Amino acid sequence: MSFRPQVEVGESRTQVLCEMVMALDVRTLGNQVAHLSLDDLAAVDDALKMVLRLGR
């Protein structure tokens, strides 16, 4: 398991930097680009649990 899972965003694969978690103002976000698949979302969830040392 990696704390930088690769996910598909649109037509590209990219890494999610789960160790770079921070709060932000939602008003600063632009337009939505894409949705994560259930598999990609599960990989991000697992990586966040590992980085934040949350129980499984």
Features:
single chain; 56 residues; alpha+beta; two-stranded antiparallel ribbon; 1 helix; 2 strands
Concise synopsis of the structure shown:
With 56 residues, the chain is α+β, with helices and mostly antiparallel strands.
Provide a descriptive summary of the structure in words:
The chain is of the alpha+beta class and 56 residues long. The chain has one domain (6-51). It is built from one helix and two strands. Strands 1-2 form a two-stranded antiparallel ribbon. The model has no long low-confidence stretch (mean pLDDT 91).
Please give the structural blueprint.
Blueprint (H helix, E strand, L loop, with lengths): L5 E4 L2 E4 L22 H14 L5
Antiparallel strand pairs: 1-2
> Tell me, what's the shape?
globular
Largest sheet: 2 strands, antiparallel
Number of helices: 1
Return residue spans where pLDDT drops below 50 for at least 5 consecutive residues: none
* Rg estimate, integer Å: 12 Å
Strand content: 5-15%
Major sheet strand order: 1-2
| Rounded average pLDDT | 91
Count every beta strand, where a strand is a DSSP E run of 2 or more residues: 2
Helix content: 25-40%
